[in-house]
Amino acid sequence: MRALRVVGLHEDGKSIVLEDPASRTRFLLPADERLRAAARGDITRLGQIEIELESQMRPREIQQRIRAGESVEQVAASAGVSTQRVERYAYPVLLERSRTAELAQSAHPVREDGPDVQTLGEVVAHGFGVRGHDYSQATWDSWKGDDGRWVVVLQWKAGRSDNRAHWAFSPGAHGGTVTALDENAEVLLDPNAYRPPRTVRALDPAREAEFQPTLDSVVPERAELPSAEPDPDDDTREIPRVPADPEEDTAVPEPRPKTKKNHPIVPSWEDVLLGVRSQRG
């Protein structure tokens, strides 16, 4: 790198004339804000000027977007610059967000009857313990909304789901207060919102017999069915009529009711008086 010497101010009053001592070649250097910052040794101002020249996003806007909850990577992508150049302006704002989230954990949740005696951190830690979550793996953050209020967020992972809870933080005496902004925040603040699942236990064999149904309670009693065989002492049975002349009996005889085995057939009176041989037998 060759060293140049300052010759003086150019006649336009906006540039510095430099000269190479070896070759006597002269150069013009614009006397702008960057040169003045470099002459003062103001590196911060010099980096700020570089960002302003490379991007339309000014440092104040970068800090505003970081304070509103955006990450360094998001702002760098929007500004079209590297994350290293955004970090120098984002760093103090990120510290402010972290400090606010820490203060909010010492604030008191607002109940129906007023602020709770316990702090937000204590209530949330108890809720995590009841649900079996690892509170040490949860992360706190905060940002400032468009209305000027600070919003505190708690992020944690349960199984495969990513969860978030938001509270509005109002700094004040005794740590300030926080108010739930979504359902997750309300559930964490309500000690009665969680019910542990009931476990299924095997019954004691002695008591299990009490619940074992008996055969009589399952199968209904069978009703008495009438006998299919006729009563031999029943005089109401109908005795078929036998015609006097067998040749006149051309009709198909009516079916006789089934009688008992070895029961004698009683002949009709016509058979007895006329001496006609019965066709039944």
TrEMBL record:
Start and end residues of each stretch annotated as Disordered: 204-281
Gene Ontology molecular function: any one: DNA binding
This protein's record includes keyword Disulfide bond: no
Keyword annotations of the record: DNA-binding
Domain DUF3071 intervals: 1-169
Taxonomy, superkingdom: Bacteria
Pfam family, one: DUF3071
NCBIfam families documented for this protein: SepH
Record protein name field: DNA-binding protein
Protein species of origin: Amycolatopsis vastitatis
